[in-house]
Amino acid sequence: MTADALTDVAGLRVGHATRRGGGWLTGTTVVLAPEGGAVAAVDVRGGGPGTKETDALDPRNVVQKVDAVVLTGGSAYGLDAASGVMAWLEEQGRGVPVGADPAHVVPVVPAACVFDLGRGGDFRARPDAATGRAAVEAAAATVPGAPVPEGCVGAGTGAVAGRLKGGVGTASTVLGSGVTVAALVVANPAGAVLDPGTGVLYGELFEGRVEYPEERVHAAALRRLDEAAAGNAPTPLNTTLAVVATDADLSKAQAQKLAGTAHDGIARAVRPVHLLHDGDTVFALATGARPLDPHPLALNGILAAGADLVTRAIVRAVRAAESAAGPGGVWPSHGELYGGQGNCTTGRGTARPSGKLHGR
């Protein structure tokens, strides 16, 4: 039995810290690697990225493995969340050894952010080190293979997908070889996820599982979206983030190829994509638990699955999201417009200044 989530890659754990109300609509999501870390890589294709420690993941550079990846709201301000994750990892003795003393480590924590500033009403309400710490503690507290809450949680709390409410989504598969591949996304694109002509999600068109809404339902949905957009401030910057993972034994170069091809999954579900005001970033993690077939083309199945799962995870993120309305704007959910309202209360938490996760 699988969770159909990133946590189906054995050893990976996911934690969310969510802040909403009182001017807040944001949060942080942490992917925690197993003890010893995971091979990591990244591919950045958006023209306006907000990232941290991505240069360390270049296959030409010395760092081979990382212990955590941070996805966060708050735009560049929210990258402070990675500091809280670093502090927690240091306390666990996890990181790159830099001396004879085992406690002397430097955790390498790659991070990327989405733009959600002001969506809760307060421009200065954004994740910080305490939020990051709450998210990594939440991840560490989960059991192996735990389901991952989706929708308006963690880094997806304030996410907006075009004119719809966005959020967090995840998906996984097991290949015929026995290799597990999985993805987790934060769907916050400037581009549309919904075909305006039919009301179908672009990602579902690709997947071939299409249920066309009635014309009257779609017409009403378009009117509602127009009304909401008319009262919202234009969104200057948006981003889709993803972590694609596998239990296959990949090199850093192979992991970077996986991160690159996974961007195809974004392009299938979002139109347009990778523009100058996007920060689209995909991280790849490989735990190395399962040997990769030595045939030079054995990686192809993993590459194809990674892209497919990113598409499916974006669809799930949009379908799981619930509507948001407040001083920062109004964003209808797919469920409100077309039925099947997502419930974002599962896994909801509030990161208080103490760094603890409450109501998880």
Structural summary, described in words:
- With 360 residues, the chain is of the alpha+beta class.
- Helices cover 25% and strands 26% of the residues.
- The chain has 7 helices and 19 strands.
- The protein has helices at 81-91, 129-140, 202-207, 215-231, 252-269, 300-320, 334-338; strands at residues 13-21, 24-32, 38-44, 51-52, 65-66, 68-72, 96-97, 105-106, 111-113, 160-161, 164-165, 167-174, 180-188, 239-248, 281-290, 324-326, 329-331, 350-351, 357-358.
- A 6-stranded mixed β-sheet has the order 5-3-15-14-13-12, with helices on one face.
- Helix 5 (252-269) packs across helix 6.
- The two termini are 23 Å apart.
Short description:
By secondary structure, the chain is α+β, with helices and mostly antiparallel strands. The protein contains seven helices and 19 strands. 59% of the residues are buried.
